[in-house]
Design brief:
17 helices; about 375 residues; about 80% helix
Amino acid sequence: MHHKESRATLGGKLSAVLVAAGSSVGLGNIWRFPYVAGDNGGGAFLIIYILCVLLLGLPLMIAEFSVGRASHLNAVGAYRKLNRRWSFLGYNGVLAAFLILGFYFVVSGWTAEYMVHSATGEIARYSTAEEYKNLFETFISNPWRPVLYTCLFVLATHFVIALGVQKGIENASRLMMPVLAVLIVVIALYSLTIPGALAGLKYYLMPDFSQFSASTVLGACGQMFYSMSLAMGITITYGSYMPKENLLEHSVTQIEIFDTLFAFFAGLMIIPSVIAFNGGDPSQVNSGPSLMFISLPMVFDSMKFGTVIGAVFFLLVLFAALTSSIALMETLASVIMDKFKLKRIPATLIIIAVCLVVGMLSCLGYGPWESVTIIVMQFLDFFDFIS
């Protein structure tokens, strides 16, 4: 009898895993992974990334979940409960989450803008790689539009958290995450049919160890932390909401497989097509954070119903970004609410004010590059420290 009961409860937990996977699948997998993999030599990076996930990601995620679940507290409180000396670890995660949210909002704003452009058919007017590059550059250099979209995205996140409409998000996750997954696989398979894409596939899958260096390892590690939302207090906060009887290893393994497959297919969707459109030249893969916004519109442009597919794709990426920014903000809100004995709405307003300041720096200052390096740096510092 006992055996049967445990089976029944496992089934009901798939939705919890989908929600957790929804919060961890976001811009990290779809926007950041392909360009970091492209920058770091494709195949060699992929192997090291998978090793990082297995050797570091799994145990760390289980550890963070169990710290959260055992303490039922937020990130800072959980570490403090373990031992007062460790509470700075919690603050470190909170700081990382703040800095990430700042530029996360900005890239989400770009995604929203691209969704609107795709839907109106404006993007379909262009044809060459150069024109798409220029479109992206004029867009991010124009000061007020990215700011407007960033603010809209911030407000949407605040709205969800302030109302506590977690439930609606959970239900939407169940619908939209699988749809996004299918769409990415379809676009990835389609992009392999573009003439010249096989050279790109080779670059992405065949490890070329002449490309291999310490920065490949650091890039892979940083990306793993980023993509799996480790060391930012998210897993601890979510762990504290987890029912005691959840089998951690099962849940974590499912989340990790889901997360890594998403990243893998996002790379498959973007890297071969970039190389195909650039006449087999892999040097173009390192156009950094703008990669998704330059290469994908070209793929959509060459597809039947590309306008519709493009608009739906950017809408779903926007949703993935929203679930992740909610996870980040929820983490920060729970710390501030506990620490300063604040109610939910004032706590989220404080976070938004600070994030908008950070976001405006990314939006208007030097473009988002600087903030990205700070974060990779931070993860590595954190990583050095913890190892």
